[in-house]
TrEMBL record:
Highest taxon of the lineage: Eukaryota
A GO CC annotation given for this chain: Cul2-RING ubiquitin ligase complex
SUPFAM superfamilies, A to Z: RNI-like
Zer-1-like leucine-rich repeats region domain location: 187-290
Record's protein name: Zer-1-like leucine-rich repeats region domain-containing protein
Signal sequence, start to end: none
Cross-referenced InterPro entries: LRR_dom_sf, LRR_Zer-1, Zyg-11_UBL_adapter
Length: 413
């Protein structure tokens, strides 16, 4: 069957290896009863990109185990990128293979909910990796693994202390973690080369004042769904971050926690948009969910930021203004047009508060359309693997959108 975007030969070969490890590899036992996986062909060697892809593929297929990780001998499979989203069957023993690699980028997901934690992962890095790691994503992870975690105790104040070892880190994503204010202070104090920071959905953060320590280096900052977005001191901090190129101030429009209502707060986004010295270098701003912002505020922001090429306006009425839509050549997330919805799906695939609304709007916009939209279908397909079946609302909206295929579009992808 012909497809619009066929897989490359390398991707097909890696898929075959991942699905047939037992056929292409053999297990050898050492004197101390430890076992290791080897390719049956002793001359086998994969270049770095192929090695990275094999690890990513094994992880995606949920095949990673301590034994499979032993296959990554640097003489045969040399890694520069590590992707660990499914570590249920991996222990610290398996992670020790990374001691022999020179790694520059690491992406994990929900680490700490299995047998290993962030600290254990970082402690398995080589000295070269500790000094040269540039990108680290530990989104949704915790310091402690389930093996040693006691739900009755508060997590140690040493949370993410091991991050301070990564002196030359440029990009850090700790979104959806238990990061507290003191841990953020440690990060800002120790990671002096940090240019990009994502602390979205860190519900324990009470202040971001320490971000001023990185005002000369930070270019990208994500603060999605933080309660500090309604604090006056946060506004002053953001006004001081003059080097920012990208800033995410979006939030959910969910019901506010009763306890949070007792804390004095007020929206700060509208005031920031009105400030002529706010983010002079900003080219990308996301204020999705910030309904307090008015159209005049946005017009003013765009006048003083002529290089802005993206605006996040999901869950706001601002995206509906036709004059605004026609007057600026920038990408927008919103619900007014199909291109806004497609952009929103690309940028917010993991936001369960946004996705059902996006899928519903796509259904409504395309229900009576005779024009094929394979671009939309291609973006929708991966969502079957992102959300669990219990997310009935998302699943229903998703299936309905896929049912909108016209002119046999499904055969082309």
């Amino acid at each position: 069957m012909m497809v619009d975007c066929p897989s490359t030969l390398q991707e097909l070969l890696i898929e075959y290896i991942a699905e047939n490890i037992d056929s292409v590899c053999t297990v050898r036992y050492s004197d101390n009863d430890s076992c290791k996986l080897y390719f049956r062909d002793s001359n086998a060697f994969c270049h770095q990109k192929a090695a990275n892809l094999l690890l990513r593929t094994l992880d995606r297929k949920k095949l990673l185990t301590d034994l499979y990780l032993t296959l990554f001998d640097p003489l045969v499979l040399r890694l520069s990128q590590v992707t660990l989203h499914n570590t249920e069957n991996v222990s610290r023993l398996g992670l020790e293979v990374f001691q022999h690699h020179q790694i520059q980028s690491v992406e994990t997901k929900n680490l700490g909910k299995g047998k290993v934690s962030v600290d254990e992962l970082i402690n398995c890095f080589s000295e070269w990796t500790l000094n040269n790691l540039r990108t680290l994503n530990v989104s949704g992870s915790s310091k402690s693994s389930n093996v040693s975690y006691n739900p009755g105790n508060i997590l140690s104040p040493k949370l993410y202390l091991s991050l301070s070892k990564l002196r030359n880190l440029n990009v850090l994503n700790v979104s959806g973690t238990e990061l507290a204010s003191h841990a953020l202070l440690n990060i800002c104090s120790d990671l002096t080369t940090l240019t990009s920071l994502d602390i979205s959905n860190c519900c324990k953060l009470e202040s971001v004042e320490c971000l001023r320590l990185r005002k000369d280096t930070l270019k990208s900052l994500n603060l999605y769904n933080l309660k500090v977005l309604r604090m006056e001191e946060t506004k002053q901090v953001l006004l001081d971050l003059q080097e920012l190129v990208h800033l995410d101030l979006s939030e959910n429009k969910a019901v506010q926690d009763p306890i949070d209502r007792l804390v004095p707060s007020r929206p700060i986004v509208a005031e920031l948009l009105q400030h002529s010295e706010f983010g002079p270098n900003l080219q990308s701003l996301d204020i999705s969910g910030q309904d307090e912002a008015k159209l005049d505020d946005l017009y003013f922001f765009l006048r003083v930021h002529p290089n802005c090429h993206f605006l996040g306006l999901m869950l706001t009425s601002l995206c509906l203004d036709t004059v605004f839509l026609d007057s600026y050549n920038i990408k927008v997330t919103g619900v007014a047009r199909a291109d806004q919805l497609v952009e929103a799906l690309r940028r917010y695939p993991a936001r369960k508060e946004y996705v059902p609304k996006i899928l519903y709007k796509i259904f409504m916009l395309t229900a009576h359309s005779d024009t094929p939209r394979p671009d939309i279908i291609k973006i929708l397909v991966p969502f079957f693997g992102i959300f669990r079946p219990k997310k009935k609302l998302i699943e229903f909206a998703h299936v309905r959108c896929l049912a909108l295929r016209r002119r046999n579009m499904g055969e082309r992808i």
